[in-house]
Specification:
The complex is a heterodimer of chains A (248) and B (70). Chain A is mostly helical and 248 residues long. Chain A is 84% helix and 1% strand. Chain A is built from 13 helices and one strand, in the order ααααααααααααβα. Chain A is globular, with a radius of gyration of 19 Å. The mean pLDDT of chain A is 88. Chain B starts with a helix and ends with a helix. The chains are: A mainly alpha (248), B mainly alpha (70). Chains A and B meet through helix 8, strand 1 and helix 13 of A and helix 2 and strand 1 of B. Chain B: Keywords: Membrane, Transmembrane, Transmembrane helix. Chain B: It comes from Aliiruegeria haliotis. Chain B: This is ABC transporter permease. Chain A: Pfam families: ABC2_membrane_2.
Amino acid sequence: MNSSLSSVGVVFGREFRAYFATPLAAIFLVVFLALAGTMTFFVSGFFDRNSADLTALFAWLPWLFLVLLPAIGMRLWAEERRSGTIELLMTMPVKPWAIVAGKFLAGWAFTALALAMTFPLWITVNWLGTPDNGVILAGYLGALLMAGAFLAISACISALTRNQVIAFICSVIVTFLLVTAGIDVVLGGLRGWAPYWLTEGVAALSVLNHFERITFGLIEMPTLVFFGSLIGIALIVNTLVVELKKAQ
Amino acid sequence: MIMERFHALTEWVGRQPRRRLYGLSIALAAVLFVSLNVFASRALDGLRADVTEARVWTVSDGTRALLTGL
C-alpha cells in the first residue's frame, strides 16, 4: 500500500511538472484569470450591483470550467497514447489505479492553483466592503469539487481515445449536459411531458444546482456525496479502461 | 456456488470485445452514480453545515423556542 501511495506521489510530481514544461500552464492561467476577472467585474456588472461579494465569479465558474477543464483533462491520457509513452508507463511496476490517481491529482492541484490565484478578487471585495467570508470560502470549496468532477470525467474520456480533439469535444458535451440539467429552460421543457420524479431526478443530477447551494454558504451531505461519487466513479471507470487497454 | 458464478462471470467478461466492456463499465457507473445519489438525497438530507457568518440558514434558539411553544 505504501509503495502504491509513493507511486501516486511520483506520478503526481511527474504530471504536475509536465504542466510547467510547456507554455500550457501559463496560457491556461492567463486565460482563466483574465476571463474570471472580466466576467466578475464587467460582464456581471459588479460595480452597478453595489454589493461586495464574489457571487458573480461563482456564477460564471461552471461555464468557465466547462471549457477550460476539458482542455486540461484531454491531454492526460490521449497525449500518452499519441506519443507512445503509454507503453513505457504501463510496463513500469506501478498499478494502473496509482497512475490514474496521480494524473488526476496533478490536474486537480493545478486547477486549485488557478483558483488560488483569483485571490486578488477576494482582497478587492474585502477592501470595497464587508463580504461574508464564510460564503466565499464555501464557494471556493464548491468550485474545487466541481473542478475535480469535470477533470475526472475529462480524464476518463481522454483514456478512451488517442485523439485530444475528440477527447475535448466529448468532455465538453458530457460536462455541458451535467451543468445544463439544472437550468430552468431544461427543467421547464421536461415539466411539460415528463413525470415529476424524472424532472426532480434530472434536477438532482445537475452540477449547477449542487454548486449553487454551496455558494449560498450551505454545505450539505448529499452535495458532497454527489461530487465525491462523480469523481470516484469517473476515476474507477478510468482505471477499468486503462486496465482493459493494458490487458488487451 | 457463489464462487462458481463469480468465475463464470469473470470468464464471460474475458470473452467480451473491448468496446462492449467499455459500454458496460460506463452503463454500470451511471447506474451506480444515480443509485448512490438517490440514496444520499433521501438518507442524508438534513445533514448540513451552515458556514455563513450570520448563520442565515440556521433556525436560531429563540425562533426554535418560539415554535416549540406554539
